[in-house]
Amino acid sequence: MAMVASSSVDPPIIAEVEMNGSDLGSTTVRATVVQASTVFYDTPATLEKAERLIAEAASYGSQLVVFPEAFIGGYPRGSTFGVTIGSRSAKGKEEFRKYYASAIDVPGPEVDRLAALAGKYKVFLVMGVIERAGYTLYCTVLFFDPQGLYLGKHRKVMPTALERIIWGFGDGSTIPVYDTPVGKIGALICWENRMPLLRTAMYAKGVEIYCAPTADARETWLASMTHIALEGGCYVISANQFCRRKDYPAAPDYTFSGLGEEPSPETIVCKGGSVIISPSGTVLGGPNYEGEALITCDLDLGEIVRAKFDFDVVGHYSRPEVLSLTVKDNAQKPVLFTSACKTENSEDP
Questions:
Q1: pTM for the whole thing?
Q2: Identified catalytic residue from 56, 69, 110, 292
Q3: Is 303 considered catalytic here?
């Protein structure tokens, strides 16, 4: 596994401290973005691979480790799940059953395992997963702290294109930003990052280390990430998988669509492009299109203050009397039982 190291400053990384917020005047944080593929349809093996990668990142002194979109559970690239307008094939339904079986419950044993790994290696962990809630799947990011605690999750609010047939939609109740000793950490997933209002909500919550797990390996992705770093005055850490055809089940059990003929086992089907960008728009590490890698950089949190002096999108550069945003951050439930509501209300002081 390769390590691509880059540093914006030279001071040593900070020691472990209590969770009472960051000091933007002096703190340097070492962060690693993981570029690696899922072991498709094999969640236990993927968790084993995740531990190896976390251990390697920790050996470099990393305090924050960010994984790609859908690393646990897998990104079903090339699959149509047998869907055409008006019908779904039996083979596609079986494919979804297998995909559903690879997803994880939140909370659940896999979440406990990831929390234990974060505690074991003393890192903040940002992990892309496929979450199973009843019989609906969500593309989700989980957050963990170095004490081995699960902090919470973000569910993708807008799956892209055919993703909408296999993933549900998140709501405004899971757009967290966590205040930690290594900075205020949050995440949006893939093309959510192209939604200006959703980004603005993140900026309003004070995000300083903006994680962007993705499945977009196009070179244009770098422009989006650079813009967000400049717009938000924050560090942007974007993690993508690097995958070859052989990292997915073989045909005919798993068929790649949209590529013409079936690709050879060595064909690259996702070329990565993971990157770390500073609040000034400087690329600190990556983009890497060569293979699986760990990209590790030192982040000078003082750079955030210097960037905000130029442009604070929800502060001195805002015009709330002209333009404003309302975020509906309560959970949206399809069914409410009035008896449960009455019980909850009766318990209020």
A1: 0.90
A2: 69
A3: no
Among 156, 184, 271, 308, the active-site one is: 156
Q: Catalytic pick from 139, 190, 234, 243? A: 190
Give the pLDDT confidence of 143-176 residue by residue, as tens digits. 999 999 999 999 999 999 999 999 999 999 999 9
Cα of 312 vs its chain's centroid, Å: 24
Average pLDDT over residues 233-239: 98
- 190 given a catalytic annotation: yes
CB burial string 272-295: b at 16+ within 10 A, e below? bbbbbbbbeeebbbbbbbeebbbb
Q: State how far the Cα of 145 lies from the Cα of 140, in Å rounded to an integer.
A: 17
Q: Which residues contact 309 (CB under 8 A, 6 or more apart)?
A: none
Q: Give how far the C-alpha of residue 315 lies from the chain's centroid of Cα atoms, to the nearest Å.
A: 26
At residue 315, what are phi and psi to the nearest 5 degrees? Answer: -125, -115
Q: Is 95 a catalytic residue?
A: no
Question: Using an 8 Å Cβ cutoff, are 274 and 294 in contact?
Answer: no
What is the residue-wise DSSP string for 169-189?
---TTS--EEEETTEEEEE--
Query: What pLDDT shows up at residue 253?
Result: 85
Question: Could you report the per-residue pLDDT of 106-148, keeping only the tens digit for each?
Answer: 999 999 999 999 999 999 999 999 999 999 999 999 999 999 9
